[in-house]
Write a structure and sequence with these properties.
Transferase, Pyrimidine Nucleoside Phosphorylase, Chain A, domain 3; single chain; Pyrimidine Nucleoside Phosphorylase, Chain A, domain 2; 46% helix; 4-stranded antiparallel β-sheet; Aldehyde Oxidoreductase, domain 3; alpha/beta; 433 residues; 15% strand
Amino acid sequence: MRMYDVIEKKRDGKELSYDEISYFINNYCNDLIPDYQVAALLMAIFLNGMSERETADLTEIMANSGDVIDLSAIDGIKVDKHSTGGVGDKTTLVVGPIVAACGVPVAKMSGRGLGHTGGTIDKLESIPGLKTALSKEEFIENVNRIGISVAGQTGNLAPADKKIYALRDVTATVNSIPLIASSIMSKKIACGADRIVLDVKTGSGAFMKTLEKSEELARCMVKIGNNLGKKTVAIVTDMDIPLGNAIGNSLEVIEAIDTLKGNGPKDLEEVSLCLAAKMLELAGIGDESYCKQRAREVLENGQALEKFAQMIERQGGIPDVIEDYDLFKKPRHMYEFTSEQDCCIEKIRTDMLGISSMILGAGRETKESAIDYSAGIKLYKKTGMSVKKGELIATLYSDDTEKINQALETLKKSLVLGDSVEPQRPLILSYVE
């Protein structure tokens, strides 16, 4: 088999066989195929697409290119939840404890943030003492003991995806539905869950900006999961507005704790309960109505909050943070951004708001960037709200005053101010099953 023939076949719009995809992936991972030939194939895929079968094969082969986590030592049906990324998206911190409190094991591996989107692992590591680098044995023991553990992804999880993504990033081939879907799902398949719930974000703060493209991505990923024997469903949720009011690591953890106490933002609570109920339904504990009722029950009676406290303690953190937020690292500087006029917030460029938080130190511009766990934004006014002159819109937090000045300019550009309020679309936009 020659790489030249594989490129030519896909260039001409033909389907690649399992063996041809395997040849390309395995030899590229072993440095036996040069970047320029893989770049040519990626462009051919970008232009001609892939069939449902090809996309499932690509996903499976990439998933098997490194570690595949075996969760069989954990009793029960393991349901994973994955978000395609957004701004203020701390749902895992709420959903995981709810599902675990309902008796369904949550064995979740999460990633770090990059660019305008935050990462669950960075958020958890803002809790003093908490560690996310767990051995496989620690990870499984935690789930068997208390029903939940959230850990960082292993260094060798789907390495083929990492290598191919780096090449896609510099060859203008990132925005291909089959390549995006296989990239996401290869890691989910390698993580070993029995069922998968996908939270596909759409809007200005999401990877996919339009509902049409988000639903296309959701359908593709659901088909991949089902074709590979993992019952998969997707929920398309709005990311034209940040989820909740906090953007930044410790700020988001505090907001998640508030939500587990029943005092959090209603949009975060709504999306979290929806995702939790779908995970419970996939785990087979009841129909949709019962699962929604059960999820709300453990949220309201404090069992989900207790489960989060147990997870913090099991992973070396200080559970007292749940009652004493002063235990989190405090920023050296803060700035209150107030309105200069009476107006309405007509729209928010959510991606720019995420970039503003990144500038403050809450996110990474590159993988090597350092994180300031205390940095971020607390947003008091969101899309569709009226604002009086002198009223507080947002507070910015950072250890660096110069970063606050830079972030403030980006934050101002993210807000579209006007005289009228337009109706907002629902948070839950569609289901793909």
